[in-house]
Write a structure and sequence with these properties.
Layout (H helix, E strand, L loop, with lengths): L3 E3 L2 E3 L3 E7 L5 H20 L4 E6 L4 H7 L5 H10 L1 E4 L13 H8 L4 E7 L15 E7 L9 E2 L4 H14 L9 E2 L5 H17 L4 E6 L5 H18 L4 E3 H4 L9 E7 H10 L6 E4 L1 H14 L7 E5 L4 E5 L16 H14 L2 H16 L2 E2 L1 H4 L6 E2 L2 H10 L3
Parallel strand pairs: 3-4, 3-5, 5-15, 7-13, 10-12, 10-13, 11-12, 16-17
Antiparallel strand pairs: 1-2, 6-7, 6-14, 8-9, 14-15
Helix pairs in contact: 1-11, 1-12, 1-14, 6-7, 9-10, 11-12, 12-14
The protein binds NADP nicotinamide-adenine-dinucleotide phosphate.
């Protein structure tokens, strides 16, 4: 049985098929470990009444080696028909060859929200003094900006045509040896993201939404993003919000969400200096990408940072780190990112009992200082576990 989407609501059958992409590099190790945790938590929560039948779909190296294509049409089709899927990391060669499979999947399914919650778990080693002050959720736009894939190489005929057009029609000179990328940011794309962030903020009792942008420099893209986001807040959510400019020196009224904005470079500074002032962050694609990794590092690195890509009735949950090829097949990597992405998936499906069981057992395992190599090297007195043993420890802690 598959998940369906009716009247803008997800319908999840008790016995449900979920497609998964195990991923390249460390993908197979961390997927296997994560699946064990998921199945144990579902069994504990529902005693056999609910169950996931995992359906493997191919992408990346495994797809290329068996089918000769990196992202087979049937994989995209299966994810489309099943609506919710989960994936490990996929290889993307730099500067040549295939474009990012992750970007392709996000664009094909129009998964316009990239959601990354960032908070600290006890004992996780971090480079900052007060990691517990970080509790943010990043809503990154996922389909536009310089990631739209509209790029022309220096010296290509397309680049030449563009240069001539810019020179003749717009009186703008572009260097002959310049690569050119186009940065589209639309009203629709910006506003649907802000709308999703505000709905999330209301549903989860969050305190503030901060629009992150570089509008001082890029006025018609980043600046417009800021203005369009404010417009959604003021017009569609006026009873639930208060604008920073209207607040003066008064405290935020009870039950209202504070809406403010910040220039991206300052955001990176403030995230370190005053993390407690930030809650939900809404960002354009490229800024959001940088910010997601920087904040993940602040609470202990990418090894456990989860992520979700969400569209209208479609969702793809994914490990936020890459394929860490040097640890492939060593049963060594931390499966935390896929496990916590699974927690987001269960929340999205409404199986919150499963999420609660996993989070509790995950926290307990970290408190016991039984961790994978990446944490063991910085936690004094910890016991280093393999990837699979870490998953077994989490399952044990569910009892
Ligand atoms: P990476 O694979 O994330 O690895 C960088 C380093 O991060 C690793 O060497 C390791 O650090 C640490 N790390 C990452 N995942 C870990 C885990 N699960 N457990 C413990 N440590 C972990 O980044 P990369 O080397 O830049 O990228 C490799 C490939 O992945 C590239 O092809 C890239 O395009 C792709 N990629 C895919 C995705 C995705 O599919 N979503 C995202 C990013 C990158 P130490 O060596 O210090 O232990």
């Amino acid at each position: 049985m598959r998940i369906t989407f009716e009247n803008k609501q997800l319908q999840v059958p008790d016995i449900v098929e979920i497609p998964f992409i195990e991923g390249d590099g460390i993908g197979p190790d961390i997927w296997k470990a994560s699946q064990e945790v998921f199945d144990a938590a579902i069994e504990k929560a529902y005693l056999g009444k609910k169950k996931i039948n995992w359906v493997e779909v191919l992408a990346g190296e495994k797809a290329f080696n068996t089918k000769g294509v990196w992202l087979p049409d049937e994989t995209v089709e299966k994810i489309k028909t099943h609506r919710v899927a989960i994936k490990g990391p996929l290889t993307t060669p730099v500067g040549k060859g295939i474009r990012s499979l992750n970007v392709a999947l996000r664009q094909t399914l129009d998964l316009y929200q990239c959601i990354r919650p960032v908070s600290w778990y006890t004992n996780v080693p971090t480079p900052v003094k007060d990691p517990q002050k970080v509790d943010m959720v990043i809503f990154r736009e996922n389909t536009e900006d310089l990631y739209a894939g509209i790029e022309f190489a220096a010296g290509s005929p397309e680049q030449k045509k563009l240069r001539e057009f810019f020179s003749k029609e717009l009186n703008k000179a572009l260097r002959e040896d310049a690569g050119i990328g186009i940065k589209p940011i639309s009203l629709m794309g910006s506003q649907r993201l802000m709308r999703a962030a505000l709905n999330y903020a209301i549903k989860n009792n969050r305190k503030s939404v901060t629009i992150v942008h570089k509008g001082n420099i890029m006025k018609f893209t980043e600046g417009a993003f800021r203005d369009w986001c404010y417009e959604v807040a003021s017009k569609e959510f006026k009873d639930s919000i208060i604008l920073y400019d209207d607040l003066g020196d008064k405290p935020v009224p009870a039950g209202k969400i504070l809406i403010k904005d910040i220039i991206a470079d300052n955001m990176f500074q403030q995230a370190l200096l005053r993390p407690e002032d930030f809650d939900i962050l809404v960002a354009t694609n490229l800024n959001g990408d940088y910010l997601s990794d920087a904040l993940a590092a602040q609470v202990g690195g990418l090894g456990i940072a989860p992520g979700a890509n969400i569209g209208e009735g479609y969702a793809l949950f994914e490990a936020t780190h890459g394929t860490a090829p040097k640890y492939a097949n060593l049963d060594k990597a931390n499966p935390g990112s896929v496990i916590l992405s699974g927690v987001m998936m269960f929340d999205y499906m409404g199986w919150t009992e499963v999420s609660q069981i996993i989070i509790k057992a995950f926290q307990k395992t970290l408190e016991q200082k039984t961790v994978t190599y990446d944490f063991a090297r910085s936690i004094p007195g910890s016991q280093e576990l393999t990837c699979s043993a870490f998953a077994k420890a989490i399952v044990h802690n569910m009892k």
